[in-house]
């Protein structure tokens, strides 16, 4: 990851070459604190969300509810989408899918209200592929999924299909 502080005239590397998590996907910047960014990392077993508070020089990886660590040889946790709530940048939504051999598979949606420290499970629309938080309406989320475009007006407690004709 590279960053520019002069509108692209010059660029500097925004991550360290030292040991530790490095994002393979960079997904969101806190609009109030641009040094705070979020991305996805692979920890050797499964995808996990990561965060930096110093412009990408150090990335923090916290425990995530789904992990392949100690799950055996056939396991997959894939993170698909991340959205940062512009009304409260400590609130992060993460969607993905999992497969655990002999246990099952499914999709998930989690919300963290404290910058990736703790997680609350939410009910995702089926086949979610993208997430957006409405910048003008608090607790209003949009999700693009296999079945179309969905909207939640109650912080992902319930979802309604919208966008007829898209």
How far apart are the termini?
34 Å
Shape: globular
Mean pLDDT: 86
Helix-strand category: mainly beta
Helix count, DSSP H or I runs of 4 or more residues: 0
Report on the biggest sheet.
4 strands, antiparallel
In order across it, which strands form the biggest sheet? 3-4-5-6
Radius of gyration: 17 Å
Q: Would you list the SSEs in sequence order as H and E?
A: EEEEEEEEEEEEEE
Protein model, in words:
This protein has 166 residues and is mostly beta strands. Helix content is 0%, strand content 44%. It has no helices and 14 strands. The strands form four sheets. It has a four-stranded antiparallel sheet, with no helix packed on it. The chain is globular. The mean pLDDT is 86.
Q: Any descriptors?
A:
single chain; mainly beta; globular
Compact overview of the structure:
With 166 residues, the chain is mostly beta strands. Helices cover 0% and strands 44% of the residues.
Question: Mind sketching the topology for me?
Answer:
Layout: E1 2-3, E2 12-13, E3 25-29, E4 37-42, E5 47-52, E6 60-61, E7 75-84, E8 92-100, E9 104-112, E10 120-122, E11 128-133, E12 141-145, E13 148-152, E14 160-162
């Amino acid at each position: 990851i590279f960053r520019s502080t002069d509108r692209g005239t010059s660029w500097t590397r925004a991550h360290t070459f030292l040991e530790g998590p490095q994002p393979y996907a960079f997904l969101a910047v806190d609009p109030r604190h641009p040094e705070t960014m979020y991305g996805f990392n692979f920890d050797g077993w499964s995808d996990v969300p990561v965060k930096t508070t110093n412009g990408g020089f150090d990335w923090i990886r916290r425990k995530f509810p789904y992990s392949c660590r100690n799950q055996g040889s056939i396991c997959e946790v894939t993170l698909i989408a991340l959205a940062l709530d512009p009304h409260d940048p400590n609130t992060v939504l993460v969607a993905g899918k999992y497969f655990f051999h002999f246990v099952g598979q499914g999709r998930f949606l989690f919300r963290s209200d404290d910058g990736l420290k703790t997680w609350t499970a939410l009910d995702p629309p089926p086949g979610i592929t993208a997430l957006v938080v409405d910048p003008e309406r608090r607790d209003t989320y949009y999700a693009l999924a296999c079945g179309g475009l969905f909207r939640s007006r109650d912080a992902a407690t319930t979802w309604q299909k919208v966008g007829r004709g898209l």
